[in-house]
Amino acid sequence: MKIKILEDRCKGCGLCIEFCPKKILALSDKRNLLGYKIVCWKSPENCNHCGICYLMCPEVVFVEDGEIER
Amino acid sequence: MKIKILEDRCKGCGLCIEFCPKKILALSDKRNLLGYKIVCWKSPENCNHCGICYLMCPEVVFVEDGEIER
Amino acid sequence: MKDKRILVKGVEAIAFGALEGGCNCYFGYPITPQNEIPELMSVELPKRGGVFLQAESETSAINMVLGASAVGARVMTSSSSPGISLMSEGFSYLIALELPCVIVNVMRGGPGLGGIEASQGDYFQAVKAPGHGDGKFLVFAPYSCDEAYELTAKAFELADKYRNPVMILSDAILGQMKEPLTLKPLKIKRIKKDDWILNGAKDRPARVIKSLFLDSAELAERNRKLKKKYQMMEKEIRYEKIFEGNEDIIVVSFGSMARLCKEAVLNLREKGYPVGFFRPITLYPFPRFTLFKLAEASQRKKRFMVFELNCGQMVEDVASSICGRGDTYSVFYPPSILPFPEDIEKEIKKCLKYSNSPKV
Amino acid sequence: MKDKRILVKGVEAIAFGALEGGCNCYFGYPITPQNEIPELMSVELPKRGGVFLQAESETSAINMVLGASAVGARVMTSSSSPGISLMSEGFSYLIALELPCVIVNVMRGGPGLGGIEASQGDYFQAVKAPGHGDGKFLVFAPYSCDEAYELTAKAFELADKYRNPVMILSDAILGQMKEPLTLKPLKIKRIKKDDWILNGAKDRPARVIKSLFLDSAELAERNRKLKKKYQMMEKEIRYEKIFEGNEDIIVVSFGSMARLCKEAVLNLREKGYPVGFFRPITLYPFPRFTLFKLAEASQRKKRFMVFELNCGQMVEDVASSICGRGDTYSVFYPPSILPFPEDIEKEIKKCLKYSNSPKV
Amino acid sequence: MPEVFKLPKSLKKNIFHYCPGCHHSIVHRLLCEVIDELNLRDRAVGLASIGCACFLYFYIDVDIVEAPHGRSCSVATGMKRARPELVVFTYQGDGDFAAIGLGDSLHAASRGESITALMINNTVYGMTGGQLSPTTVLQQKTTTTPLGRDPKREGFPLKMAEVLSNFEGVAFCARTAVNTPKRVIETKKLLKKAFLAQLENRGFSYLEILSTCPVNWKMDALSATKHVDKLIEIFPLGVFKDTFGGNSEI
Amino acid sequence: MPEVFKLPKSLKKNIFHYCPGCHHSIVHRLLCEVIDELNLRDRAVGLASIGCACFLYFYIDVDIVEAPHGRSCSVATGMKRARPELVVFTYQGDGDFAAIGLGDSLHAASRGESITALMINNTVYGMTGGQLSPTTVLQQKTTTTPLGRDPKREGFPLKMAEVLSNFEGVAFCARTAVNTPKRVIETKKLLKKAFLAQLENRGFSYLEILSTCPVNWKMDALSATKHVDKLIEIFPLGVFKDTFGGNSEI
Amino acid sequence: MRFEIILSGFGGQGVLFAGNLLALAGMYRGYQVSFLPVYGPEMRGGTCHCTVVISDKDIASPLVKEPGYLIILNLPSFLKFIPRLKKGGVALVNEDLVKRDEIENYEELTHHKRVIYVPFSSLAEEAGAPLALNLCALGAFNGLLKLFSEDVFVRALKEMLGKSKAHLFEANFRAYLKGIEAINKV
Amino acid sequence: MRFEIILSGFGGQGVLFAGNLLALAGMYRGYQVSFLPVYGPEMRGGTCHCTVVISDKDIASPLVKEPGYLIILNLPSFLKFIPRLKKGGVALVNEDLVKRDEIENYEELTHHKRVIYVPFSSLAEEAGAPLALNLCALGAFNGLLKLFSEDVFVRALKEMLGKSKAHLFEANFRAYLKGIEAINKV
Ligand SMILES: Cc1ncc(C[n+]2csc(CCOP(=O)(O)OP(=O)(O)O)c2C)c(N)n1
Ligand SMILES: Cc1ncc(C[n+]2csc(CCOP(=O)(O)OP(=O)(O)O)c2C)c(N)n1
Ligand code: SF4
Ligand code: SF4
Ligand code: SF4
Ligand code: SF4
Ligand code: SF4
Ligand code: SF4
Ligand SMILES: [Mg+2]
Ligand SMILES: [Mg+2]
């Protein structure tokens, strides 16, 4: 399974970054259309698919690749 | 102390009669201006001035003689 | 005598009318002088598989009405002046959400707690501002038990038709007096609501019933739509008139007061006085145009005497309807001082005598 | 420059006006677009030994106002349309109990939740039926921060003077815009209330403040008394007019809308168009007589264009004031679609061109 | 032993308008006795709530204002906040306090307003002719529950004293009755405590008094008075919260 | 373990309007998951209450009606009474449910209405800019308590789950939070139970969810999320009433 | 033909029941009728009254300024309504509770008015139905005016009593007959 | 003399602060001013804007249909307000967030309008005050129009920051100066 980041939705709140047990997420310098700096992978290869980022993200940014994007 | 019955106020509810420990009160056949049959003494001489009639009467009918009447 | 004739209070006639109109849910809170409505409904509705619930306040009652209406019930509430005030916010939402329902106000004398005798003090509230914003009710003012029965039944149909609350504006005389009522079956249309009610998004997109429009254009659009609806409602305008064209004076009055006035006018006409009678039955939309025409009916300038059980309210609508084409007189009886028909006759005769100075 | 000039929102100007008017108690509940009032009061009142309390709802807020007023406080609440509706019953009681207070309504677009942009949709509610029964408020409609400050301060004096609630009817444009306010000290009278307030029956008979009158005559008497009071209030009528007598068109408008209209009218007058301007500042009592006189000012029949941010409300009062002596046009902008002065100019020019058919 | 056979000073001489056997007026008398004994007349303000007791001012000789139905605790809040030196009490029915007024009552309690609230619980709406009240007991017939209160439909009787005892702002909270001489005497003590709580600024004080409504219960005065004993099985008497300490003697 | 990385079917694809770090939308997602898993979409009706979540209908794909501020439980009552086959839930803020709506909420609970009420407790009025709420904690600064909530002036925080647990009509009543992954999972379980209580017609079911309001708390998203732990000291998490029996596993 | 009647007495004297019954009987007889009670808290204590109109034409107003008939069950009612009785009108008065000599300016009050005293309370007690003095008064009224037959009255009374109070029919009817009997003797 | 300005950007970009500050400086300078923000839930997410009018005459209407000036901090704002800019009007645009090539029919939109690009975000970061891009924009604006002196501006800024944010003065003022500097180079 590949996790996709729906960048449009991210508000850069940092919750996923904080709670990811692998500490593999970070804020990038890139801004989305809403003006927020968005989340990005530091080392996706270390992801254990625990789902915590999905659980904690208030914006439903992390989805399985293939889920319909808006 | 003499207990006076303010007949105008009585509504004949019977609470005093029921609770008087001496059972010396009764309803008379007389009606007051409001149309209620009013309370009366059966045997005032047996009164022990316990005050229960005063306590229970919803209409403040029993007063010490000399209290201002309306 | 195939229709049953029973002796009932006006408020009972309203309740029977509601049942005839297909009312299947009632939510309300006790208040004099209309308690017979919930009391009757609490017996009748459960029998017919309907819902009766006494709410903990008028505010919650009107919001239960809102909920029941949103899922498709023919629902009603009833109250009296202070209770109606407590429903104002709910009224405004019902209008905005375009939810049909029937509201009965058996007015009592205000302001404040006031008194429970007959009054028409809530005329303005009913026709001008049932709540905040520009919303309006369709307002019926019956003046007899038979009419209360029929108008209330009809109210349910019209509420559904326009997706708008309909108010029955009554008062304590009509509400509390008994007179014979003919319980005749009426042809009240059931209107299909499957296309908008909330009943679970089964095999269709989910629906939203809302009044919040943060987009200016959308909000304006919604308001224009409502305004158009009110204009459409003019089709429902009803009134009663006794008028041949040459009367000098036209007595205007509604509800119970109109009963008293009508008796006075009929008496005077019998005696040959040139007095006509006009009774708006829909208070909103107001029969403006008919009144205007009445004012223009002949060359002679007419006097419109507006009799009300309040401090003068409907008189403003009469004045603005006739646009200066006649003179308007306000004869008002503040809540609780009821005139007798004889008193009204006297007032009219006085007015016939005196000159034509306008008094509004 | 001895008076301090600050840049504030209209709602802040209202709050400063209240403090200048001697307000010492505030009870209210948050609602956009007037939250700056309670927020400012929560800082300022405690500093001055006054009372600020956020109620759990508008209904309880207005009843806290009632309590504070009964014991003699200069008390105020503020809200916006839906919250104002929830206060209707309380309003009616305040009027009936003859308790002074100041109520601010920073209107938003209704009905229902509507939108929070500028609207004048609660005109009818404010001037015709703040609650059930025949009660009335004295209603001020400021159109600038300076005026909001002065009228609010004055409102406290007049509320005490008439023992009647006074309403400041504002809207989101005036409420939320900032402009310079001159914080000048005003001469607001303190009115003695020792003869009626409830402060413990020490060395005097106990007092009762009530609105329940089961005796018909008493209730009618109370209503007549109130009606007389409203007539007395006509002394407080205020308006602004730009008019020389020969204008063909008079633009009538209040509050923020009047700012837009005034700009349009001034522009047109500069260009030589025969256009006058009339702005009621007291909405109740309404400057009926002045308008009537205006209509009669010259032989030529005038056109009154009534611009409002609603679906047409004040236009009815204008029409009934001029009694057919002129023609009335309703130019209405349902809540949230705001015209610019340019648009208004266009409307006026259109009207100048076309013939004289009355439209109400 | 209270002083009997004396008309309390603050009791007006008007004949009560209550139905025969209605306990409202017993409570009125006790209230007047307490006002007299605590010397409150000079600074007391009472709230006449909407219900059978809305004419409170005809009987009790203190400053009184009428509150809209259910709003007494909010009106009292406004008064007390504006003039903390006043002693403010409400006199409310069960419909007024616990139905339409529930929000106002509980918020005042929760804020710990220093006021004294009295709720006369006769389990019906007396004034309007005997409709269901939040405190109507299960199976009780009223004019809007012709078949008796059914918990499936109308839910359960609200026990206000119990509910209030869980609120931090509440300083004193008790339920009593006046259907026996002993309870009348006890009620007066509790009434006094309820006022003392206010005088000492401890917070919200509440006294619930079980009462009768013979007319709407369709009973004679005596049966109604006895029937209160049945109510006590559902609404137990007692002090539910007392910042004076459990057994304090007044 | 819930099914992660799948957009719930009943979640609309609109981007939430909430501020960064606001937990409202976490609850939205969980709600959608539960609606999907219990297959409720066909017969669910939601109440969008006035508060930051008044746009519920932009996100949750079930029938939704807007309720006036505080009235959701009454509106829901009307719906459920008229159509008992519907599954009716409210989504309310602490201001909506416990301030202006307290009467409506408690009466619906007391009547045992078969509805599910969710209260998102962020201890302030988010929508209107951060004013005092009944659940604001002591000393907390809000725009209307610039010096912090003082129990002498504003009273004590209202603990709705505790209050409701004493009502006979309540079938299920719990408090939870979504500020850690574990709690998110737990919350979903409790949400499900709250709906099951309705599906089994047991009475009123209530779930209170502690939430954040970073903007009005004047914190960044992360601190706000952590701060919920502090709130839990005042508003303990747990199941306060459960007619399913204490330890039932869903 | 138009009869305007005001009935008045204490709260417990069954005045509203009697007025309602009267109107109902009138309706069964085929007349137009209206019945206007007082209601609300006014009912509690003090006097209680109602207005009945029976007519062969439509009744526009249920209000009556000067009734042609009064049925008076107690003293306060007498004092309140006698002044409104039409000249030449008839008042049926409960002799048991209204004593002529307790009334100041009695002559003036009753000038040009016919006052018929009947001891309704005692008669009702005699009939074994002390609470039915209202029925007794109705008996007297109909005995005087003969507005409707016994059949019609019985039907109306049974309707008014309904199932729950059907057992009271006999006693009530006896009191009614007592009233007729008494008026016939006057 | 009358300047009509609309400022627009994201919620967090300090648009309302800048607008308010501009009006305040105008008032200190002795002009009539008005400042009309958007408010309420609209503030949450999406674009946020406000209108400032500065004039030497009374300002009747705070509403502006076709502003003479725009201060645009992000792309959505550009798309929303450029069409309303008066012919011949000037738009100061945040180059960092508004890319010409991301805009369809750019030419048409900006016909007869002067668009000045300044990288407000980067400049603010350069100034060590990344959040002060709004001040940077104000610098550019006043640099262009020279409506008020530095004194007046400093007084207004200090007033706006109040005590609680006084420590931010330096950073904000640096960003302001950066803006002036940048515009002078254009
Ligand atoms: C807003 C409003 N709703 C309803 C009423 C009618 N009303 C008067 S008293 C009352 C209830 C009285 O019951 P309770 O409070 O228990 O007092 P009781 O008469 O039983 O002593 C009601 C509903 C009213 N006056 N105002
Ligand atoms: C009758 C009424 N009063 C006030 C408001 C304004 N208002 C909107 S939301 C809200 C409170 C929101 O607080 P809460 O319920 O806690 O929800 P949150 O925004 O915190 O999620 C208020 C007071 C309103 N819309 N209607
Ligand atoms: S939790 Fe979601 S919104 Fe927050 S930073 Fe991570 S992806 Fe972005
Ligand atoms: S799935 Fe788990 S490990 Fe992978 S990014 Fe998300 S939180 Fe980190
Ligand atoms: S004082 Fe006691 S004994 Fe005497 S009458 Fe009263 S109750 Fe009976
Ligand atoms: S208790 Fe009072 S009212 Fe009742 S019968 Fe005795 S004296 Fe009369
Ligand atoms: S109706 Fe009930 S509460 Fe009211 S006075 Fe009569 S007995 Fe008392
Ligand atoms: S204001 Fe608070 S509750 Fe509302 S969206 Fe923002 S963070 Fe969430
Ligand atoms: Mg009661
Ligand atoms: Mg909240």
Kindly describe this structure:
The complex is a heterooctamer, with two copies of chain A (70 residues), two copies of chain C (360 residues), two copies of chain E (250 residues) and two copies of chain G (186 residues). Chain A has 70 residues and is of the alpha+beta class. Helices cover 14% and strands 26% of the residues of chain A. Chain A has helices spanning 15-19, 52-56, and strands at 3-5, 25-31, 37-41, 62-64. In chain A, the strands form two sheets. A two-stranded antiparallel ribbon of chain A has the order 1-4. A two-stranded antiparallel sheet of chain A has the order 2-3. In chain A, a hairpin with a 5-residue loop joins strand 2 (25-31) and strand 3 (37-41). Chain A is globular. In chain C, helix 7 (145-162) links the parallel strand 6 (138-140) and strand 7. Mean pLDDT of chain C is 95; it is low at 355-360. Chain C has helices spanning 10-20, 36-47, 58-70, 81-86, 88-96, 123-127, 145-162, 172-176, 216-232, 255-270, 288-296, 314-322, 341-353; strands at 4-9, 25-28, 51-54, 75-79, 101-107, 138-140, 165-171, 178-183, 208-209, 239-242, 249-252, 275-280, 282-284, 302-308, 326-332. Chain C has two domains: 4-235, Thiamin diphosphate (ThDP)-binding fold, Pyr/PP domains (Rossmann fold, 3-Layer(aba) Sandwich); 239-353, 3-Layer(aba) Sandwich (Rossmann fold), CATH 3.40.50.920. Chain C is globular and about 70 Å long. With 360 residues, chain C is an alpha/beta fold. A seven-stranded mixed beta sheet of chain C has the order 3-2-4-5-7-6-13, sandwiched between helices. Chain C has a five-stranded mixed beta sheet with strand order 10-12-11-14-15, sandwiched between helices. Chain C has a two-stranded antiparallel ribbon with strand order 1-8. By secondary structure, chain E is of the alpha/beta class. Chain E has one domain (24-242): Thiamin diphosphate (ThDP)-binding fold, Pyr/PP domains (Rossmann fold), CATH 3.40.50.970. Chain E contains nine helices and nine strands. A seven-stranded mixed beta sheet of chain E has the order 2-1-3-4-8-7-9, with helices on both faces. In chain E, strands 5-6 form a two-stranded antiparallel ribbon. In chain E, a hairpin with a 5-residue loop joins strand 5 and strand 6. In chain E, helix 1 (24-37) packs across helix 7 (181-199). Chain G has a single domain (2-184), classed as Pyruvate-ferredoxin Oxidoreductase, domain 3, CATH 3.40.920. Chain G is built from seven helices and six strands, in the order E-H-E-E-E-H-E-H-E-H-H-H-H. Chain G has a six-stranded mixed beta sheet, sandwiched between helices. In chain G, helix 1 (15-28) packs parallel to helix 5 (133-145). The mean pLDDT of chain G is 92. Strand 9 of chain C pairs parallel with strand 2 (63-66) of chain F, so a sheet runs across the interface. Bound molecules: thiamine diphosphate (2 copies), iron/sulfur cluster (6 copies) and magnesium ion (MG) (2 copies). Residues 51, 93-95, 122, 124-126, 133 of chain F line the site of one magnesium ion. One thiamine diphosphate (TPP) sits between chains E (50-53, 69, 93-96, 120, 122, 124-128, 133) and C (29-31, 58, 82-83, 86).
